[in-house]
Design a protein that fits this description.
Blueprint lengths: L24 E2 L2 E5 L5 E6 L11 E3 L4 E5 L4 E6 L12 E4 L7 E4 L5 E6 L11 E4 L2 E3 L6 E6 L11 E4 L4 E3 L2
Parallel strand pairs: 1-4, 2-5, 3-6, 4-7, 5-8, 6-9, 7-10, 8-11, 9-12, 10-13, 11-14
Length: 171
């Protein structure tokens, strides 16, 4: 799922995959643009009967997608097959050594779009933010949009913000 007009970045900056996760998985790496550069990251979770087939997975404090004035667009589609669950489109979490982050500074617009996996399992979230942050710049917009998985399972939310340490902010 890539909206018209976006040029996706596929497969850069990853550190291993869990189950059949699609690239990119951001782990101990930064995806960043200086100046007014634009960052676009897209990912689709793998077609697996196992759980946790994330589209884009930003895992810890050493995992960040940032821009210093340009726009950021992150688009993820969860994968999965059968009763597979927890197939998030975009997952931003604290992997144990601090929170993952997507951050635009200055005038950059920050857009996060996630679609949960379309299977029969539970917890197929569009965008899952757990003990992590999505941070907008001083004048740019922050847009977070999620669609829960098209599933007969439970808790397939479009956007889930969990834990008191999770934030979505715009300066």
């Amino acid at each position: 799922f890539v909206p018209p007009g976006f040029s996706p970045l596929h497969g850069a900056f990853h550190r291993g995959l869990q189950n059949d996760q699609a690239l990119p998985q951001v782990g101990v790496h930064y995806i960043t643009a200086g100046g007014n550069g634009t960052v676009t990251v897209t990912g689709t979770g793998g077609a697996s009967t196992g759980d946790s087939n994330y589209g884009v997975n930003v895992v810890n404090s050493e995992s960040q997608i940032t821009s210093e004035g340009g726009n950021i667009t992150v688009i993820g589609q969860g994968g999965g097959l059968g009763t597979s669950g927890s197939n998030h489109g975009v997952r931003i979490t604290n992997g144990g050594n601090g929170p993952g982050k997507i951050k635009a500074t200055g005038n950059g617009t920050l857009t996060v779009i996630g679609v949960g996996g379309g299977v029969n399992g539970n917890n197929n979230l569009g965008v899952h933010l757990w003990s992590a942050s999505i941070e907008g710049g001083t004048t740019g917009l922050v847009k977070v949009s999620g669609t829960g998985g098209n599933s007969t399972g439970d808790n397939n939310y479009g956007v889930q913000v969990s834990n008191t340490n999770s934030t979505i902010t715009s300066s």
